[in-house]
Amino acid sequence: MARRAGVEKTTSIRSLAQLERAIIACEKCPRLRDHCARIAVEKKRAFRDQTYWGRPVPGFGHPKARLFIIGLAPAAHGGNRTGRVFTGDQSGSWLYEALHRFGFSNLPDSKGRDDGVVLTDCFISASARCAPPQNKPTRREIDNCRPFLLAEMALLREVEVVLTLGSIAHDAWLRASGWWEKLTPRERPRFSHGGEQRLPDGKTLISAYHPSRQNTNTGRLTREMWHSIFKRVRALLERR
Question: 2-239 has which fold?
Answer without folding.
Answer: Uracil-DNA Glycosylase, subunit E (3.40.470)
